[in-house]
Amino acid sequence: MDRRFEAVDRRFEAVDRRFEEANQRFEAIERTLASHSEALARHEKALRRLETGIGSPGHRFEEGFEEVVRATIEEFSGVGPLRAERLVLRDAEGELFGVRGQSVEFDAYVHDGRRFLVEVKGFAEPEDVLNFHRKMEFAKRHLDEPFEPLLIAPYAWRKAVQLAKELGVRLLMDADQDPSEDQ
To answer: What stretch or stretches form a coiled coil here (predicted)?
Structure first.
């Protein structure tokens, strides 16, 4: 009888070990699920911010861009006859990017009268203003004629608008749009 009880005890101990191993696996799965739930919550929050920022992109961008184009036409009316062309300068010494021979591109070089170097963005962020300003400084050292920097963007972060003013970059944007708060 004692041997049978010992055999049953060993079986119960084996079953207990299996239950303990299963319990450890379930706890690991619960930790993984908790981690995934936290990541999912962060992604949902980021997605909500993205949806809020984009809104109805086609409609908002189209209306804002149309207004900026009208403002640009008004800005340049009477300046002409104008010629606008894409401008690419070669950074032979690597001044701008730290790599020799890179291209420095401008969306438009408007000339025949006043001269403008133009950058076009769908949405201006502070980094865009800073990059454009760096490109302007590079262009000042490599172009013979003076020019005016002009950044065209239907929408912009408020900090980008402030930075453009500080750096002397004219920013044309939809006049009806209040610059967006940075997030």
So the answer is: 12-53
In three-state secondary structure terms, 120 is strand
The two structure tokens encoding residue 35: 């981690």
Half-sphere exposure of 90 (CA within 13 A, CB side): 3
Q: How far apart are the first and last CA of the chain?
A: 75
CATH number corresponding to 57-172: 3.40.1350.10
DSSP for residue 118: E
pLDDT score at 15: 92
Alpha helices in 55-125 (DSSP H): 57-76
Give dist(CA 138, CA 90) in Å, integer: 10
pTM above 0.70, yes or no: no
**pLDDT tens sequence across 90-139:** 999 999 989 999 999 888 888 777 788 888 888 889 999 999 999 999 99
